[in-house]
Design goal:
globular, single chain, alpha+beta
């Protein structure tokens, strides 16, 4: 497993001085980026081959949100390649080695010009060492949008929403979704399904749906769409009931 150590910063915390879900996702993204860069198959390597990775789905399960100043370790590894797809686990650990959060993700390697599937190079397959999947309850990547809900204010894509590939970063989609909830909720599980890229000045229509899970937990689904109803991303946020 590739890891790096960090400490929870004030800029990453909420009003309760705990790490935010959005910042946790940023840690995971940064970890995979560091991993690729340290292996020599990062952004420059991909740009030279006209390739880029895009996230297809996230599942993040949170046991607790660490407090300001806590020292943590963030880790990641790939566990399978299948055609253009790469499957990758993530985790955040406390100083005692206990899991704070675990994640599963699916990525696709695409050609920048055609947006058609690419394939990992022999060098990438050699350098990315596959490991056994993390023990966790794996959810499907398809997200059902509840009928109970309604449209909220649209969001216009701004320059700060974009990443190095000039489309909306997957973490920014999650931030957009969180901003549409009627209240700030502690999240036990995040699932995100990405269907298409969004670019500068695109206007995202936001549908916010709601349902109750079998265990009584509130589940919010934010669907970010274009004016025709075609989906950019669906984000599911399962509320955490107990104190975290």
């Amino acid at each position: 497993m590739y890891t790096f150590d960090s400490r929870i910063r004030y800029s990453e915390t909420d009003s309760e001085s705990r790490l935010t879900l959005e910042a946790l996702l940023d840690y995971f993204q940064d970890c995979s980026t560091f991993h690729s860069e340290d292996l020599g198959v990062g952004l420059e390597y991909l740009n030279e081959r006209n390739l880029f990775w895009v996230v297809i789905s996230w599942q993040i399960v949170v046991d607790r949100y660490p407090k300001l100043g806590e020292r943590v370790t963030i880790g990641t590894f790939p566990y399978e390649f299948k055609g253009c797809f790469g499957y990758r686990n993530f985790c955040m650990l406390d100083e005692a080695g206990n899991y704070i959060a675990k994640a599963n993700s699916l990525w696709a390697l695409l050609n920048k010009d055609t947006l058609r599937p690419g394939h990992p190079t022999p060098e990438m397959l050699e350098k990315y060492i596959l490991e056994e999947k993390l023990p966790m309850e794996y959810a499907g990547r398809k997200i059902e949008v509840p009928e109970r809900g309604g449209m909220e204010e649209p969001i216009t894509v701004m320059s700060w929403h974009l990443d190095a590939n000039n489309h909306v970063n997957n973490g920014q989609f999650v931030r957009m979704a969180m901003s549409q909830l009627p209240k700030r909720v502690p999240v036990a599980q995040l699932r995100a399904e990405y269907k298409r890229q969004a670019h500068l000045d695109d206007v995202l229509q936001t549908y916010v749906g709601y349902r109750t899970g079998e265990d009584g937990r509130n589940i919010w689904v934010v669907s970010l769409q274009d004016e025709q109803g075609d989906v950019y991303a669906n984000v599911e946020l399962e509320e955490k009931q107990e104190d975290i």
